[in-house]
Write a structure and sequence with these properties.
This protein is α/β, with parallel strands linked by helices. The chain is 34% helix and 21% strand. It has helices at residues 16-28, 46-49, 61-70, 88-94, 123-131, 155-165, 168-171, 178-185, 207-214, 231-234, 242-254, 258-266, 382-385, 391-410, 419-429, 436-452, 463-470, and strands at residues 8-12, 33-37, 74-77, 97-100, 106-107, 120-122, 147-151, 191-195, 219-223, 269-274, 277-284, 290-304, 307-310, 324-336, 339-342, 346-347, 357-358, 363-364, 366-367, 370-371, 377-379. A hairpin with a 2-residue loop joins strand 19 and strand 20 (370-371). The longest helix has 20 residues, at 391-410. Bound molecules: flavin-adenine dinucleotide (FAD). It catalyses: 2 reduced [adrenodoxin] + NADP(+) + H(+) = 2 oxidized [adrenodoxin] + NADPH.
């Protein structure tokens, strides 16, 4: 009978959402078997290819993913892209349920003239380049210029700015890729602008990232005092943790400690936090290179039941910070630079054209992880809820999804398929797939290569190289 049959669940994507969902499923039902299908030959998604190389502590989650992966009821099929190597339909035909957790593989565009110039890069690709994503290994990064502009006020924007300004003798001790280190060593960049369309109360980066920027060696922080004017009067009304972040911005702009001020005077590099600017055009030099970005200057309005009223900073309340909109003024301004990094957000893509997908938000349509009108299909993580937030948020999402699937198994909504169906499918992809023990070989080889040069690991950046080690 079905109650004795084993539920087999396929997870699409081996990032945090996939591993946390697997953990919950394995814990909640002693019979469940979980198969993780991953496009790349290596697991862990953005923990490997997103999280900054100088944040090794964040990557400790890999230890708990490895625990999950070593459970004998959990299988990893790397190097298998769903939608290309196997179809979503064949997974649905062969498994009790399919959980989509394939992240966000694209990024938002600005849609302005000049965006296609050669040194205008997406932060997503730039991050992939220094973190060893095989897709980004040939990104043409030109750091033979003095200034860079990073567009966006989130943690990814701050990550890329920090990598541009961190001395390479510090980066050398991380798992940053060797090919990017070579280019960073020759970098002439002295100045990085981090530009956002709204004000200091709407930034999306967090205090840890700001603190790291302020403490960068040989680098001064410039936040213009008029930009933070009046913030001291409302700071006590701002809910934490934004209050502490705002305090730090205010202090850095207006009253840095004497030691800090002294260090900043001597610094040869600088970063500037720029507010209330929306890019309208990327300008070209006569030689066809990036010459700068033209911005329109914004002011902030609170949107109140459809009507817009100017912000009165004395009346700012924590709960209306998020609803303040940037509206353009008549002023324009150009900032010169030779590199532009666009960091205005990631975007998920529909895996299959049958999938109910919200094109506007770039997410799969679902209710409590249950994909609309598709009984055996679930989704979680960034592909379900949008590319925002940290691993902890992805973890709660994925645990919830795991519970929903377990509930639907318990209440009989999901029925186990014949075991041979899953076995046949696995037999089809077996030769191409990289297993978790294959990954452990790649891991070992990367760590050994890293040890030779004083790094935690030297990542392989080429799929063929990964495969040849996996198969050795
Ligand atoms: P992902 O991590 O993107 O995993 C999705 C996986 O699916 C990938 O491995 C992908 O290869 C695979 N996949 C895609 N398509 C297919 C397909 N068709 N078939 C099979 N597999 C497929 N959070 C923190 O807590 N701390 C940080 O310091 C931090 N830094 C970050 C830095 C950057 C640059 C970015 C972008 C994010 C950062 N985050 C950080 C957030 C964190 O990475 C995310 O919360 C988390 O990775 C989302 O997990 P996910 O599994 O939904 O997506």
């Amino acid at each position: 009978t079905f109650s004795q049959a084993k539920p087999h669940i396929a997870l699409v994507g081996g990032g945090p959402a996939g591993y946390y969902a697997a953990q919950q499923l394995l814990k909640g039902n002693p019979h469940i078997v979980v198969d993780i299908y991953e496009k790349l030959p290596v697991p862990f998604g953005l923990v490997r290819f997103g999280v900054a190389p100088d944040h090794p502590e964040v990557k400790n989650v890999i230890n708990s993913f490895t625990q999950t992966a070593l459970n004998e009821r959990c299988h990893f099929f790397g190097n298998i892209e769903v939608g290309k190597d196997i179809s979503l339909k064949s997974l649905r035909d062969s498994y009790t349920a399919v959980v989509l957790c394939y992240g966000a593989a694209d990024d938002k565009m600005l849609g302005i003239p000049g965006e296609n110039l050669s040194n205008v890069l997406s932060a997503r690709s730039f991050v992939g380049w220094y973190n060893g994503n095989p897709d980004d290994k040939n990104l043409p990064v030109d750091l033979d210029c003095e200034s860079a502009i990073v567009l966006g006020h989130g943690n990814v924007a701050v990550d890329v700015a920090r990598i541009l300004l961190t001395p390479t003798n510090i980066l050398e001790k991380t798992d940053i890729t060797e090919h990017s280190l070579e280019i960073l060593r020759k970098s002439r960049i002295q100045k990085v602008y981090i530009v956002g369309r709204r004000g200091p109360l709407q930034v999306a980066f967090t205090i840890k990232e700001l603190r790291e920027m302020i403490n960068l060696p040989n680098t001064r922080t410039i936040i213009q005092p008029p930009d933070v004017e009046g913030l001291d009067k409302i700071i006590q009304d701002i809910p934490r943790p934004r209050r502490r972040l705002t305090e730090l911005m205010f202090k850095s702009a207006v009253a840095p400690s004497p030691e800090m001020a002294q260090l900043w005077v001597q610094a040869s590099r600088e970063w500037r936090l720029v507010f209330l600017r929306s890019p309208v055009e990327i300008c070209q030099t006569a030689g066809g290179k990036v010459g700068g970005v033209k911005f329109i200057v914004n002011k902030l309005h609170v949107s109140d039941q459809g009507s817009c009223s100017p912000v009165n900073s004395n009346k700012l309340q924590g709960d209306n910070l998020e609803t303040q909109k940037a509206v353009p003024t008549d002023s324009v301004e150009t900032i010169n630079c030779g590199l532009v990094l666009r960091s205005i957000g990631y975007r998920s893509l529909p895996l299959d054209n049958m999938l109910p997908f919200d094109e506007n938000k770039g997410v799969i349509q679902h209710q409590q992880s249950r994909v609309h009108n598709n009984k055996d299909l679930y989704c979680t993580g960034w592909s379900a809820n949008g590319p925002v937030g940290v691993i902890l948020g992805t973890m709660s999402d994925a645990f919830e999804t795991g519970k929903v699937v377990l509930e639907d198994i318990e209440n009989g909504t999901l029925l186990c398929k014949e075991r041979s169906k899953r076995e046949n499918l696995v037999a089809q992809i077996k030769d191409k797939a990289v297993t978790f023990s294959d990954w452990l070989k790649i891991d070992k080889s990367e760590c050994a290569a890293g040890e030779l040069v004083g790094k935690p690991r030297e990542k392989l950046i080429d799929v063929q190289q990964m495969l040849s080690i996996a198969r050795s």
